[in-house]
Write a structure and sequence with these properties.
The complex is a heterodimer of chains A (760) and B (299).
Chain A (H helix, E strand, L loop, with lengths): L13 H6 L14 E7 L5 E7 L1 H4 L4 E5 L23 E2 L5 E7 L2 H10 L1 E6 L6 H4 L21 E3 L2 E9 L2 H6 L3 E9 L11 E7 L2 E6 L4 H12 L6 E4 L16 H11 L3 E4 L2 H6 L8 E9 L5 E13 L8 H10 L6 E10 L13 H18 L4 H8 L18 H12 L9 E12 L6 E5 L5 E5 L8 H13 L6 E4 L17 H28 L6 E4 L2 E4 L2 E7 H9 L4 E5 L12 E4 L8 E14 L6 E11 L6 H20 L29 E6 L23 H13 L5 E2 L3 H9 L5
Parallel strand pairs in A: 1-13, 9-29, 11-12, 15-16, 19-20, 27-28
Antiparallel strand pairs in A: 1-5, 2-4, 2-6, 3-5, 7-8, 8-16, 8-25, 9-14, 10-11, 10-13, 14-15, 17-26, 18-19, 18-24, 21-22, 22-23, 26-27
Chain B lengths: L1 E4 L3 H9 L3 E3 L5 H6 L8 E4 L9 E4 L2 E5 L4 H6 L1 H6 L1 H9 L3 H6 L2 H7 L7 H6 L3 E6 L2 E6 H4 E3 L2 E2 L6 E8 L5 E8 L10 E9 L5 E9 L6 E2 L13 H14 L10 H23 L8 H4 L7
Parallel strand pairs in B: 1-3, 2-3
Antiparallel strand pairs in B: 4-5, 5-10, 6-7, 6-10, 8-9, 11-12, 12-13, 13-14
Helix pairs in contact in B: 10-11
């Protein structure tokens, strides 16, 4: 182990959060601050025939009421520019914002919202993914063809993004198979459900606006404000106080521009705080529902000859960051397997549902659930142990994967060994228990990122980072990376985040990318400081800078520890001369090549940079009388490269597994006939609780990966959320004799599956 | 809004007579208002500081439970766990530790939810509720108290001050089980309580079963008197399940379909009677049955 991998970790934000002294966005109060409320469509598809805000504006205490007429006429969206801040003419989901009110109290704002007169002419609903793709389906966006969109996207009517991966000859491959197995799986949408409902506070000073917001991606939020309110980046300052969880739900650009526009119109600071119900209904970030049809051909010896799959993904009413979902889903439905002949196509379908967006490992838990359940069906058709089937067919070091990428050193086979060992796969169990196993994968995301470091005259350091902490501890880990470069302690550094006017760019707490990219930036900046310290020390100790070693808070001459000077003393010297100030960014790893495959709608997701692998093995118990499932034990083995912060990494595995259990068993959005969510509340949308937590044992397969992040690290935070539901499905199928083909696999669905008459 | 803090019963009754509604733990009233289910009443009187309503009084007549006794007290009180075990089972399942620390039995009873966990145990024990107003007091059996979802036969100026449970004959046992999808912050999908008294030879002397969340109120299962004299065996348990499923009138909603509820309430009734009989025979099954016998009260 290198110094950087030593398990020692004290969260800098821990005491603030535990004692309540930390401040979240909703805790902020500014002089003269107003309360904001939104008027939502509350109808899933309709033309606005009348919108009258005059009565709302007339209510005493109401300081601003805004509609589409009051903001620049800008269509925005990272992949398809299909959205406006406020509904124009047509509303396409129940949580669409029609108007915003700022008033002296929340109660007055709500009264004003209720006084807004809106009349609608209902339009036909699109709620079914397959019907939505038919030629005569009603259009969610009649003007889809005129929208601006990313050049790589292939779009057609309600198909907002089409993607395919093609390799070899899939029909010939299926023809040469001894067994051909076809399955269909259907997943309901679900939610990120962060415990902190989002909040935004905006205040103008002159022509500059400061926005405090509970976002995972401050620079993305800034870009959204700049685009929609037509402002340059240097007049919009995004500050993120403590963030109460995100799970992807707070990625993207949400309401910062609405509140900035309200604050400008009212000439007062304005604060928005969402209710739990709003958190469920309004943001364009929920996990997408999916339909997955897959056919796999295998030889009697167990080798896969071909796979063909068709995937439909619920985009919802607008295209948030979901443009890449089809290609990513196609990769997950292919899976980390050796497949010589492959054809997968995936469609992102507009519906009159809440828009989908990146929730922790988007498309992966559902796709992995489907494909790994299917894999167990294939193994069963061969009368082969499903773990042996995976050992035989999973990718490995130097092997070509489904999209034509040949992998460097990877640990998927080791993950299979370790996870099954953790739960004692193969042992005798009571007849109401079973162990299921699933493998999964997830890319690392290589993107630009920046950080500054300064050491002040007293020897204390500050890391000024563009990275955003969403609770994973990744930003907290940056102190460790800097300290290790400088022979200092993590506690010697304070973290300054998040302020877009202070720190350089970072993509934010998204794509498991903080350590992968910002770690690189912090190490680069620390390297500059190290060079400065070594030069100062060399002068002080009359040695060559190349011979200076930084360790234990001191600089010493290599081989002569007694010839040393403290970093504090060097910092003092520097404060009277050239200051210790550094910046870092570094070059992101490059994307690996693909050979022999062709991709339509290629948005770069078929080549996985520093791919992560995982295997989850789950032991569960089934109550055969009711269909209730209890998860008893989870073994999770992960190849996420070098683990920098073991405490934080274990927390991510445990949290990811718990989220996976929820998605497997209890979390799913239900809709009524008018496309309204029926369970936008935490009693009826059932997250798992601590009381439901099983024993979770983790093994990290640590391979120092080249062309990866700091010290050979890959991403981590999303990977633990990939394979859990799949492993649960496979354990259940062993007890039921067949898989449950709907996600979540609720107790009632399990019971229904048990009650089905066996067709054979 | 008018908010009064009563420190004596008389103060509370005076406020009620003036139209106030009582609040104790607030776990229904406040949560309901926050969720937009029903706004807070215009006038509220806090009764949580009335010391005289906080006691558990065991006597030869039975057990008197002050209206302010919390679920946390009920799940651990020796008399409740020993003699009225189904009530302890149910109390231990309510919400989370913090819910159980503030939630009171009086509030639970008067909220009259058909999904309330403590309701079925109270019904099988033949509980009576003491209702007090400035004009006097009366006792009402819980079967006559609950008239519909959230509705009771109590008058607006009447305060529930205590719940009385009759004494238990020797050879008695009880249990409450519920169908739940998670193990905390959960509400009963369906549930069942059983109270049984066995003769020395194991034959049923008396058996009461009540069901949760399968009708507009907690309901008693009729026909259990015909089971007297029989042994508690698989045949009897199957008959109990059939009686429960056939008498349930469940709805389909977010939590479960009518069909699934009807099936599961039979399973819960069977498990409740089985656990109650085992306790009556002296077997120790820790509170709550849902946890000690595994998932969904697997037996």
């Amino acid at each position: 182990m290198t110094a950087a991998t030593k398990p020692r970790f004290i969260r800098a934000d821990g005491p603030d959060k535990v004692t309540g002294s930390g401040r979240y966005t909703a805790d902020l109060t500014l002089t003269g601050m107003l309360a904001a409320k939104f008027r939502y469509a509350d109808i899933a598809h309709a033309r606005i025939t009348k919108l009258d805000v005059s009565a709302a504006r007339a209510i005493p205490g109401v300081m601003a009421v805004l509609t589409a007429d009051d903001v620049p006429d800008v269509r925005f969206g990272p992949f398809v520019q299909d959205r406006t801040l406020f509904a124009r003419d047509v509303v396409r989901f129940e949580g669409e914002v029609i108007a915003a009110v700022a008033a002296t109290t929340a109660a007055i704002a709500q009264r004003a919202v209720d006084a807004i007169v809106v009349e609608f002419e209902p339009l036909p609903l699109v709620t079914d993914l397959e019907i939505g793709l038919t030629a005569d389906a009603p259009l969610v966006h009649a003007d889809w063809a005129s929208y601006g969109a990313a050049g790589a996207l292939v779009r057609d009517r309600n198909d907002a993004s089409f993607s395919s991966i093609s390799k070899g000859d899939v029909d010939a491959g299926l023809a040469e198979a001894d067994h051909v197995i076809t399955s269909r799986y259907v997943a309901d949408g679900s939610h990120a459900a962060p415990i902190e409902p989002r909040a935004v506070v905006a205040q103008w000073e002159g022509n500059k606006v400061t926005i405090w917001t509970s976002t995972q991606v401050p620079f993305d939020a800034r870009a959204g404000v700049c685009e929609t309110l037509e402002l340059p980046a240097n007049r919009v300052r995004i500050i993120v106080p403590h963030l109460g969880g995100g799970f992807g739900g707070k990625c993207g650009f949400h309401y910062e521009a609405h509140i900035a526009a309200l604050a400008k119109a009212a000439k007062r600071p304005v604060r928005l705080v969402f209710s739990r119900r709003e958190e469920f209904l309004a943001p364009d970030r929920r996990r997408e529902g999916m339909v997955i049809d897959v056919t796999t051909g295998v030889r009697n010896d167990g080798t896969i000859t071909a796979r063909k799959a068709w995937i439909a993904i619920d985009n919802g009413a607008y295209t948030a960051d979901s443009g890449f979902f089809p290609q990513l889903a196609a990769m997950h439905v292919s899976g980390p397997y050796r497949i010589p002949n492959l054809y997968v196509e995936a469609h992102l379908v507009y519906t009159n549902h809440q828009p989908s967006g990146s929730v922790r490992a988007p498309t992966a838990p559902q796709s992995c659930w489907a494909i790994e359940s299917h894999t167990d069906e294939v193994a069963a058709a061969l009368a082969m142990d499903p773990v042996d089937f995976r050992r035989l067919n999973a990718v490995d070091t130097g092997v070509e994967g489904p999209s034509g990428q040949t992998y460097g050193e990877i640990g998927v086979q080791q993950c299979i060994e370790e996870a099954t060992k953790l739960v004692g796969y193969g042992r005798t169990l009571p007849d109401d228990e079973a162990i299921g196993v699933a493998i999964g994968w997830w890319p690392s995301f290589a993107v630009p990122s920046g950080a500054y470091i300064k050491i002040d005259g007293d020897g204390s350091g500050q890391i000024i980072t563009g990275a955003q902490e969403c609770g994973t501890g990744s930003v907290m880990t940056l102190r460790q990376l800097a300290a290790d470069e400088l022979g200092m302690l993590p506690e010697d550094f304070q973290l300054v985040y998040q302020d877009t006017s202070v720190a350089p760019y970072d993509m934010g707490a998204t794509g498991s990318q903080t350590i992968f990219n910002n770690g690189r930036a912090v190490i680069a900046a620390a390297g500059q400081i190290a060079e400065q310290l070594k030069a100062l020390a060399a002068e002080h100790l009359e040695a060559s800078p190349a011979d200076i070693v930084l360790a234990d808070g001191h600089a010493h001459v290599a081989g002569t520890p007694s010839s040393s000077v403290s970093i504090t003393e060097l910092a003092g010297i520097a404060s009277g001369g050239e200051l210790l100030i550094a910046h870092g960014s570094g070059t992101p790893p490059s994307a690996p090549p693909l050979l022999g495959s062709s991709c339509v709608g290629d948005v770069g997701m078929a080549a996985f940079v520093a791919p992560q692998f995982s295997c989850h093995a789950v032991r569960l118990r089934l109550d055969r009388d009711t269909g209730v499932v209890r998860i008893l034990e989870v073994g999770a083995a992960h190849d996420s490269g070098t683990i920098i912060n073991e405490t934080g990494a274990l927390g991510q595995i445990q949290g990811g597994v718990m989220m996976g259990i929820g998605q497997a068993l209890t979390e799913g959005t239900l809709y009524d006939d008018e496309s309204r969510q029926r369970n936008p509340a935490l009693l009826e949308y059932k997250l798992q609780t601590c009381a439901d937590s099983p024993v979770i044992n983790t093994h990290f397969v640590q391979i120092a990966t080249p062309n990866a992040g700091p010290h050979g690290a890959k991403g981590l935070a999303e990977a633990p959320n990939v394979a859990t539901a799949a492993a649960i499905s496979n354990a259940l199928a062993k007890l039921l004799g067949r898989p449950v083909r709907r996600l979540p696999m609720t107790a009632e669905r399990v019971w229904e599956t048990m009650s089905e008459v066996d067709p054979s | 809004m008018n908010f009064t803090i009563a420190t004596t019963l008389d103060e509370a009754l005076t406020a009620l007579a003036a139209g106030a509604r009582p609040v104790a733990g607030g776990s229904d009233l406040v949560v309901g208002a926050r969720q937009g289910k029903s706004p807070l009443p215009e006038s509220v009187v806090a009764i949580d500081r009335i010391e005289s309503l906080t006691h558990l009084d065991a006597s030869t007549d039975g057990l008197g439970i002050g209206a302010l006794v919390t679920h946390a007290q009920l799940e651990s009180d020796a008399t409740v766990v020993g003699a009225y075990t189904a009530l302890a089972d149910a109390s231990a399942l309510v919400g989370s530790p913090s819910t159980r620390n503030v939630g009171t039995l009086g509030g639970n009873v008067m909220n009259a939810s058909p999904a309330m966990d403590t309701g079925a145990p109270l019904l099988v024990f033949g509980a009576e509720v003491e209702l007090r107003s400035s004009a006097g007091s009366r006792r009402v059996g819980v079967a006559d108290l609950w008239t519909g979802p959230g509705r009771t036969s109590a008058q607006g100026d009447e305060l529930c001050t205590a719940i009385h449970l009759p004494s238990r004959p020797a050879g008695s046992g009880s249990a409450y089980v519920r169908l739940e999808y998670r193990r905390a912050m959960e509400i009963a999908v369906v549930g069942a309580a059983a109270s049984i008294t066995l003769a020395a030879d194991g034959a049923v002397v008396s058996l009461s079963v009540a069901l949760t969340a399968v009708a507009p109120t907690i309901i008693a299962v009729g026909g259990t008197d015909t089971l007297a004299g029989r042994q508690v065996d698989d045949a009897l348990l199957a008959d109990v399940a059939a009686l429960a499923s056939s008498q349930a009138v469940p709805i389909s909603d977010l939590r479960a379909s009518e069909r699934y509820r009807r099936h599961c309430v039979g399973v819960m009734a069977r498990r409740a009677v089985d656990a109650a009989a085992r306790r009556a025979r002296g077997e120790s099954i820790a509170v709550p049955v849902n946890r000690s016998l595994g998932i969904g009260a697997a037996s």
